[in-house]
Amino acid sequence: MQHRKLCFIGAGNMAGAIISGLVESGYPAKLISVCAPSGKNRDPLASKYGVKSSDNNIACAQEADVVVLAVKPQLMADVCKALQKEVDFSGKLVLSIAAGISVARFCELLGNKLNIVRIMPNTPSLVGQGMSGLYAPEQVSQPDRDYSGELMTAVGKVCWVDTEEGINHIIAAAGSAPAYFFLFMEAMQAEAERLGFSTETARMLVEQAASGATALVAASPDTPLSQLRENVTSKGGTTFEALKVFTDHKLPKIVSEAMQAAITRAQEMEKQF
Ligand SMILES: NC(=O)C1=CN([C@@H]2O[C@H](COP(=O)(O)OP(=O)(O)OC[C@H]3O[C@@H](n4cnc5c(N)ncnc54)[C@H](O)[C@@H]3O)[C@@H](O)[C@H]2O)C=CC1
Ligand SMILES: O=C(O)[C@@H]1CCC=N1
């Protein structure tokens, strides 16, 4: 992949996950810098992965070819305004991983001719199993699109969307989705503990069932998920009764409402920040 000088503004969960995945996959650490006001998160990244750590957003952005905006949406306007005063963004590629901040808003904050790609990653990027959605406005060049795609391919799979609205759909289906599965697994682990298993055993049971199920999905690309479910569900058996509880409580409707709630919040954030 192309190796450009890369600067992360923000050193939190998501920046850390991407930096770790990039370095593990061979991206040169000396080309990566990470900025945050406090050393609490960025210094461990510097010592673990050999990237440069700094509290100076402006100096790092000035030096970089590619600036990754990885702060919370609430802070984005202030961070961008400070950058805009000192940094010439012409000739740079800006990547935003923020939910709920549109390209139009970034152009207001950083300049009209901004060369920007929106990326919606998720935390499994930390272990090279990320799922990222990408959107680039028409004016972004093919080499910049290729670079953005290659960057996120280094930490997982990528899915380009043709319209910016698609980024909010990616949030619902992938960006926020690890938390849905963690919630489900937490509830299962708690019940396994109530059944008398130790915390460690309960976690192992749930973790292995979940990773075994996803491995089976990955190994069966032509089998619909419904078929995989039916393969577990013996007639007159236990799974049928368990699934009946989920369907009686309208699990598919709950999932649909939860995903729509994520989209609605992203749309609200687009107005708020
Ligand atoms: N956590 C997740 O699963 C995902 C998060 N995102 C997006 O990633 C962005 C970051 O989210 P997280 O990493 O979860 O947040 P976080 O709260 O873990 O990290 C934010 C980082 O920004 C730093 N920061 C605060 N003020 C700063 C400033 N003035 N200059 C530079 N850095 C500053 C903080 O020190 C912290 O390191 C958000 O915009 C979020 O929408 C996108 C997809 C998934
Ligand atoms: O909760 C959030 O707003 C961010 C975006 C997707 C995952 N986390």
Write up what this structure looks like:
- One of its GO terms (molecular function) is pyrroline-5-carboxylate reductase activity.
- It is found in: Cytoplasm.
- This protein has twelve helices and eight strands.
- With 273 residues, it is of the alpha/beta class.
- It folds into two domains: 157 residues, NAD(P)-binding Rossmann-like Domain (Rossmann fold, 3-Layer(aba) Sandwich), CATH 3.40.50.720; 95 residues, ProC C-terminal domain-like (ProC C-terminal domain-like fold).
- The protein has an eight-stranded mixed β-sheet, with helices on both faces.
- Helix 2 links the parallel strand 2 and strand 3.
- Helix 1 packs parallel to helix 2, helix 3 packs across helix 4 and helix 7 packs across helix 12.
- The two termini are 34 Å apart.
- The mean pLDDT is 96.
Q: Could you give a short account of the major beta sheet?
A: 8 strands, mixed
CATH architecture of the largest domain: 3-Layer(aba) Sandwich
CATH class of the largest domain: Alpha Beta
| Total number of domains | 2
Described by the principal axes of the CA atoms, the overall outline is: elongated
Low-pLDDT ranges: none
